[in-house]
Amino acid sequence: MQKLADLHIHTTASDGSLRPEEAVKLAKKAKLSAIAICDHDSVDGISPAIEAGKLYRIRVIPGVEVCYEEGPVDIHIVGYFIDWQNKTLDSELRELQQGRFRRINDILEKLSKTGVELTMGEVLSVAAEGAVLTRSHVARAMVMRGYVKSEEEAFEKFLAYGRKAYVNRYQLPLGETMRLIKNAGGVPVLAHPKYGEATRLLPELVDLGLKGIEVYHPDHSKNDIARFRRLARKYGLIEVGGSDSHGPDRPIGTVTVPYEVVEKLEKARE
User: Fold this and answer.
1) Range of the domain at 133
2) Per-residue pLDDT at 258
3) Are 97 and 132 in contact (CB under 8 A)?
4) 229 near 260, Cβ under 8 Å?
5) Mind listing the pLDDT tens digit for each residue in 186-202?
6) What share of the chain is helix, strand, coil (3-state, %, to 5)?
7) For a FRET experiment, which of 136, 144, 176, 194 has its CA 20 to 30 Å from that of 76?
8) Measured between alpha carbons, how far is 10 from 264 in angstroms, rounded to an integer?
9) What pLDDT was estimated at residue 24?
């Protein structure tokens, strides 16, 4: 039987609904050999996931997802095989987390001007304790209060770039983001390149040390996959894939890649 890996999973450490231990247990049920925990600006889910991995005999790859925006361009970089105990990484991620909190406050102020009244307490109520706050938490709170019917509607009407309540995020420059991952021993990979016009900056990312591209993703069509495979070959990038699971709505193992991809990423650290 071929060994498979899901290399894009979020937990309650950011905007996922599964605790790290639950994610590993579900990976075992899905008969996976490896998963990568890739929370937004957080490594807090990695240690409990690794401990659960020992119990369930699942290899847990430490990762983190860091974002960069430049106008309509929205780039998400996943760092695989990071040293999640690296002090510089931890310090920078804490700064990014604080920036996210300030951003949520600013979003709530803008929403109020449109007639959408939400409190920070309501946003926190839909997040796990200690979770890194994201716009997805605001969207969930809007659904909870009945302002919108879905998180997608919240983004389309209020939270996406150019909408009424959009607020620029606090972020590191793109080069510093890449250096942060590499200096923590990580392998930088461009996540879900279909979105945010991410491929516009692909040549620059490659020059900065990009090693892979997420070719396989639940939202990628056959044409998308073919296009990203061509780009991977053109730039010599590892073809990565995963479910981008945030919970039961998109189960772990929905998208997988052969375990050999894990080995390629690990070798790329050298």
Assistant:
1) 95-159
2) 99
3) yes
4) no
5) 999 999 999 878 899 99
6) 45, 20, 40
7) 144
8) 22
9) 98
